[in-house]
Amino acid sequence: MKNINKVIITGNLTHDPEQQSTPQGNIVLKFSVAVNDSVKQGDEWVDRPNYVDCVMFGKGARALSAHLRKGMKVAVEGKLRWSSWQDKQTGQNRSKLEVAVGEIEFMTPRDPQAQPVQ
What we know:
The protein contains 1 helix and 6 strands, in the order ββββαββ. The protein is mainly beta and 118 residues long. Helix content is 5%, strand content 58%. The protein has a 5-stranded mixed barrel with strand order 1-3-4-6-5. Strand 3 and strand 4 (44-57) form a beta hairpin.
């Protein structure tokens, strides 16, 4: 049986995306999506946010940086990606799981006056 690595989430951007470039000149766009999870507390259901880090690469990332803004509702499709590194300040090993975005759909209308993130 083949493993499946596919993630689809909807939620709101927690901050404006951060656009970076790799040493090779590739564009990397990083953002976080708040996805609510309902949990039962007593007799009531309460929304509890989960914060999902997302990363997108290439031409699509550059184009999206002009349109994504904090608070926008989006649908993100991608795959889980695990990365690890050594913290430069503490020397401790660190790791995280994030969504490598393949597609994104705007669920909030895009702002035609928006400027690219620098």
